[in-house]
## 1
Amino acid sequence: MTIYAGTIVDTPGDPFDGDPADALAEVGAVCVREGIICGRGTLAALRAEYAGEPVTQLPDGMLVPGFIDTHVHFPQIRAIGGLGMPLLDWLERHALPEESRLADQAYAREVAGDFLGGLLASGTTSALVFGSHFAPAMDELFGAAERSGLNITSGLVVSDRILRPDLLRTPRAALADSTDLIGRWHDRGRLRYAVTPRFSLSASNEMLDVCAQLLEAGVWFTSHVNENAAEVAMVAGLFPGARHYLDTYRRHGLVTKRSVFAHNIHPSDVELAVLAEHGACVAHCPTSNCALGSGMFPLRRHLAHGVSIALGSDVGAGAGLFLPKEALQAYFIQQIMGPDGMNLTPVHLLYLATRAGARALGLDDRVGDFSVGKDFDAVWLRPNPGSTLGVNLTYARDTTDALARIFTLATPADVADVWIRGVARQGPSLSEAAR
Ligand SMILES: [Zn+2]
């Protein structure tokens, strides 16, 4: 057992439900036994309860729950920074040529190492990962994820039209490959499988039927929806019988409480109602939305309809794997939306980067905050004392103010340590640990 003492902050509540301040909690210590949190409170109280147990002091900075990324593409980790293109051009000219390289399994192994090492170094301990179009590449990702201890939900990306030919599979081949992968990896330790059509633009009705068949195994589902105006128009042309973009998934039974849809920047009210009715979640990816010029996320409308949202980095369209940066960008977007925007507080930002993701992924009984009984997945943000963030934390008035300064200024360089189910993964060894 270990007692960790410091400034320990989480959001056991929901800041979108009532006064945001009520959702925040701060304690002086947590104790961890075999990777599971067994107590929280003051250091004095935990010392009295667990006399003689070792205490790890975390002087200055802040310990927060491990970040949870609900939309990130592992095959694009080497393709960040393709600026200046809207979605469909960016896919064709920038992202998909790189994704094709993962046909080479040795290349995919290196990419999986780069990707998981990057997540750890950014303090991300759980993620819903958009996979590769190639089954052997998925074996590499799942194998490396298992060794890393990260909480990973992912699956083979399936498409049977419009994309470059080497990324296409027949529905029959997609069914066979996906079934094999589910058998090998779903519910194995911290790994789970997610059925992943790239988007209905590249998936025929036959392919979407295969996806529905695969969901019967009790796995997860993820895809893209309503990201870009040209994409939305093209999907409407491809599915003349569909009432709206989301309907291309709904009529195949793919909108469920285990479904996470990325983006949803341009939804109709009917689509929001359908998402809420089925308990499906939306992954908001703000830096990607800005980089591709996709649009501004209607957060208030999602909440008004009762649709749960979480954050995704959407690497490689997004600007890196560090979730606090996504939270800050979400804040920026809402600020410039005028009356349609929401005034997000620092408590909202911490919630969005942690517990909201746990809820979206159905993992909130295990991770997302420091409640007793949950896995100790944690990030120690500890800036150098002379850094601008270090100076700002010195002058923070209270916990909420300190959080505001962290979300404004922190970078992966401020990640001093990451714990995965109680196991510390020190900075320099992070990328090696994932290999
Ligand atoms: Zn994406």
Note: The chain is about 40% helix and 20% strand.
## 2
Amino acid sequence: MAPKRKKTAKKKTVAGRKPGTSRAAKHTPSKIAGRGTDPPRVRKILEKLDEAYPNATCPLHHRNPFELLIATILSAQSTDVRVNIVTPQLFEKYPNPKELAYANPKDIENEIRSTGFFRNKTKSIIGASKKIVEEFHGEVPRTMEELLTLPGVARKTANVVLGTGFGIASGIVVDTHVQRLSARLDLSKNTDPKRIERDLMQIIPQDRWILFSHQLIWHGRRICQARKPRCIECNLEPLCYSKDKTV
Ligand code: SF4
């Protein structure tokens, strides 16, 4: 009797594609990448961000923490370019918290109208200025707890002011870019900004928190854009296995 032949499984191939170029293969991360929040992978991401954006900083023009606070409130649902057009005249007319605190709301609305949501923003910047004058001796407070008591200020704005205005790393700014990139780079599985911030704070060294958020924001604006990320130009590509990748 002839010996039985061993059955050998045929490799399935996708029509029209060379072996190893299937969609799954395309998104397989490089071996150096590791997965998710693996510390060597996170270190590599930080190195790559440093290479690409060594001088990343806040694009909102300001001369002091108070101006930065007001500019950050104005930047909600607007662009930094638009805010930078509006603030020079605003700060010339209202150069300190006292001037802004007791300004006529209608005048402020007219000054900031082009940034959108101008009525609410007027309430916020007048309210925040009043509180700074009446409860904080005219000085922008330097703690997260105190900043969060100001009208119109949530964690994101407070982190911008503490980090960029005072150089205090008390958290990580999570805006829409940081939110999207944290998911694409698999640094957080959460969608809520507070939880994303908490996740990032656990894996990013504290002395990198301020620069890291600027770098992610720059990367999100320049390369890893929401609709069509420019992966071919991205130096993080070997470390990224996002399903949104375009290469
Ligand atoms: S640009 Fe592409 S490769 Fe780079 S981080 Fe974004 S999705 Fe990943």
Note: The chain has twelve helices and no strands.
